[in-house]
Specification:
2 copies of one chain form a homodimer. Chain A contains 7 helices and 3 strands; from the N terminus they run ααβααββααα. Chain A is mainly alpha-helical. In chain A, α1 runs antiparallel to α5. At the A-B interface, α1, α5 and α6 of A face α1, α5 and α6 of B. Chain A binds a DNA duplex through α1 and α4.
Chain lengths: 168, 168
DNA sequence: TAGTGTCAGTTGTAGCAACAACTAAAGCGT
DNA sequence: ACGCTTTAGTTGTTGCTACAACTGACACTA
């Protein structure tokens, strides 16, 4: 592999360097706002948000892992910590004794509602409101193209297909 | 703050979800390829690459920290580990006794050259070659707009301005 | 219904990052 | 020349993530 790969040209390098910078900077910005205002990491917030939108506010660990792009070990640790804080509860899945369901508690639901406005505000300030409407559409298309490579099995697609541009 | 922030509309949410997915997935892809093929994290590779392009292959810790978007504590740990592996050497800056210079060793230079092709190949496969030429240009513009918010002081701009689209 | 392989999840360990506290040198005003 | 502030960097601790090993349950075959 990679024996005969040409280096990036100037335009490609310009785009790549910017993407690297964003990937490096954005998590820190999201994390620090959420930690400061709600005591949550961005990953924890995202997991709680996924639960909050699920039927019964309940998901199997595997589904939650796919929607948040977490390995099962990582998710297991995170959910255990969230459970210790009373934001989530786990119970065995009735249909499959191997599986575990994670359900948002009332406190967890309250936490999501409490954290959401500040988070959305951060997202707007740093990303969405910095772009024109057509740039937003371009970013969606670019994101689809990249994710087809990064996430070919579409494990996270349960999430992003739901927010597709063409509803039907 | 954020008292009256409207929620994202459908187009905005579609773009945001995709960006989150990329930010979550891309570091893992870059790290695992580089770890497997060169025994480096992406951050270590990036730091070595910045040194390799600097005059004398030497940079002050502060400069390197800005170009890689690392806090000084983080950089200090990373450079110490790289030094223990013989890829980098540190020496006091002659002009300013407070400052430390980091210089790429021969082994470090060899390591960068060894690691670069596989890394570029990964970048192409997962990002650059998935995009059309106009999407690459769009991504550059979008990146600039976002980074103006994420990195207003342009600490990382030393890097990305160098690869600007309009050389003169 | 016993055996084998796969799936779902947990637990333990090691390594990296964030944060805070600290040292030391430089700049600056008086 | 003396203090005060800022700058540059290191060190220590805590917490999260990745990886590997493990337990237990389902599925399929004979």
């Amino acid at each position: 592999m990679a024996v005969d790969t040409p280096w990036l040209d100037e335009e490609q390098l310009a785009a790549w360097v910017r993407l690297v910078a964003i990937v490096e900077l954005l998590p820190g910005v999201l994390d620090s706002q959420l930690r400061r205002d709600a005591g949550l990491t961005h990953f924890e917030y995202y997991a709680l948000a996924m639960l909050s939108e699920a039927p019964q506010r309940t998901l199997r660990m595997t589904s939650l892992g796919m929607q948040t792009n977490a390995s099962l070990p990582r998710l297991s640790h995170v959910v255990r910590r969230l459970e210790e804080r009373g934001l989530v509860e786990r119970f065995p899945c009735p249909d499959d004794a191997r599986a575990t369901n994670a359900r948002l508690t009332e406190a967890g639901w309250a936490k999501v509602r409490e954290a959401a406005p500040g988070h959305v505000s951060t997202v707007r300030q740093n990303v969405v409101d910095a772009l024109t409407a057509s740039q937003v559409a371009q970013l969606t298309a670019i994101g689809d193209a990249i994710l087809e490579k990064l996430d070919p099995h579409g494990t996270m697609s349960a999430t992003y297909n739901r927010y597709d541009r063409s509803p039907e």
